[in-house]
Every structure is written in structure tokens, then in C-alpha cells.
Design a protein that fits this description.
5'-nucleotidase,  domain 2; five-stranded mixed beta sheet; four-stranded mixed beta sheet; 11 strands; about 35% helix
């Protein structure tokens, strides 16, 4: 349908150019609302024009890239989908840039659908991540780091929903009765008073999902990597090694009540 819309826009624009080449004046204009029915009939000539693109796109989206042995869903304080995506994201960025990052933070609200047990198609990964988000590395000050930790704490205590919880990698945060008691980053004790380099998306680095602690950073480094491409590449690489997606929660964010 997207190609059809593009075609209609192109035809309309061409007609507009033809009209503009003639000196015309509008003497009267009327408008009214029309209902577009789902059962609209596409003419054979238009369908023959768009069908090669439609069929090619469908074949690409239906391609099975791998399979998952478990349901990958968002969760609070952690979920398998968030753990899976942040881990592969952090690993890819760490192996791509020169200055190693400390940990990764993404957002559950950005993952638009779960990946249920079974085949993983390219189209499913486009559904999970329909945005053209680029991965960046943001260095934040010690004060902003405290704000980040507080953000994770609050989100980890929210009632379970698609937007509660914060998916992270290479950082472990222990809570007791809702308060932060212990933090490990890259297997080292968290140190107050120092800056940290965080892998995230360009959307979140701009304060998306109320992540204001990313604003006015010490530095920000673009990686040139799109998050969706990194996910797809990882799933394909696992398939090449004959490895299906299979993981379990590991307590990286844990609230002991």
C-alpha cells in the first residue's frame, strides 16, 4: 500500500505541474469529506505497476532469520526482550568504537511488540523496532549519573506495563524495599563522582521518554549504527553459528522486598 500511495502522490504532483504551466485562476472552491472504504478496488494497471515491489517486499519481510526458544517480552524490573536487545547492542558498540562504553540503557516503550517463541522473521524485527534510531555513546557527569540511577529505580517500581522498567546491559542495580543498595558497572563497584559513557539511541539522548539526564552531556559520539540493523545482524549471526535465541532473566535489576 505504501508504494501505491507514492504512485498516487506522483501522479497528483505531475497533474499539478501540468496545471501550473497554464495560467489559471480559481473562481470557486468547495470541499467535502469522503469516506475511504477498505474495500477500495485498485485498477489492474496500477496493481501491475506496484505488484513487483509489493511481492519483493513481502518476500524480504517473510524471510526467517532464526528462531527463539522462549518468549521475548518486556518486563519490570527486567524482561527478556530488553535484556536480549541491550546485550547485543552493547556488545556491538563496544566492538565498533575506539573508546569503550561503560553500559547500555534503552527503553521498553521503544520495543513495539514481543517476539514469541518460534521463527523470527525479518518483518517481525521491523515490527519490534520500526524506527530509524541510531546508536550513540553519551558521556554523562556524575550528577547526571545519579539522575539516571533514580530514573531506573522509579521505573523499576512501577506497575507492569510496556513502558515500565528500564532495559540495561553491563550494569546491575540491586534494590531493597524500593531503595538502591548496590550498583555494579562492568563488574566493578559504581563510583560516585566520576562520569560514565552510556550506549543509547539518538532519540533517548535527546531526552526522549523523559531521559533528561542525557541532555547537556560531556560528550556524545555517533556510531553510524542503526539499532534495528544491529538486532537483525545479531540474529542472523546466531543462525550462522546454528544458535537459536535462548536466554533467562539474570537479576541485573533486582528488588528484594
Amino acid at each position: 500500500m505504501t508504494n501505491l500511495i507514492k504512485y498516487i502522490i506522483l501522479v497528483g504532483f505531475s497533474l499539478l505541474l501540468i496545471t501550473c504551466n497554464n495560467t489559471l485562476q480559481v473562481s470557486e472552491a468547495k470541499s467535502e469529506n469522503k469516506t475511504v472504504e477498505k474495500s477500495i478496488i485498485i485498477s489492474p494497471s496500477v496493481d501491475s505497476l506496484i505488484s513487483p515491489y509489493r511481492d519483493s517486499m513481502k518476500a524480504q519481510m517473510d524471510e526467517v532469520l532464526n528462531k527463539t526458544l522462549v518468549d521475548l517480552e518486556v518486563g519490570v524490573p527486567e524482561g527478556l526482550l530488553g535484556n536480549f536487545i541491550t546485550d547485543l547492542t552493547f556488545s556491538r558498540v563496544r566492538n565498533t568504537i575506539e573508546n569503550e562504553p561503560d553500559f547500555c540503557v534503552l527503553n521498553n516503550g521503544g520495543f513495539r511488540t514481543p517476539i514469541l517463541k518460534g521463527p523470527i522473521t525479518r518483518g517481525k524485527l521491523f515490527e519490534v523496532m520500526p524506527f530509524e534510531n541510531e546508536l550513540v555513546v553519551v558521556e554523562i557527569s556524575s550528577d547526571k549519573m545519579l539522575d539516571l540511577i533514580e530514573y531506573v529505580r522509579k521505573k523499576s517500581l512501577m506497575a507492569e506495563s510496556r513502558k515500565s522498567g528500564v532495559p540495561v546491559s553491563n550494569i546491575r542495580i540491586m534494590l531493597s524495599n524500593g531503595e538502591v543498595t548496590h550498583i555494579m558497572i562492568n563488574n566493578r563497584q559504581y563510583r560516585e563522582g566520576r562520569s560514565y559513557r552510556v550506549v543509547t539511541t539518538d532519540y533517548l539522548s535527546g531526552g526522549g521518554d523523559q531521559m533528561d539526564f542525557f541532555l547537556d552531556p560531556i560528550s556524545i559520539e555517533k556510531t553510524g549504527l542503526k539499532l534495528r540493523d544491529v538486532i537483525i545482524d545479531h540474529v542472523i549471526e546466531l543462525k550462522k553459528r546454528d544458535v537459536a535465541v535462548n536466554l533467562a532473566l539474570d537479576g541485573r535489576i533486582h528488588n528484594a522486598e
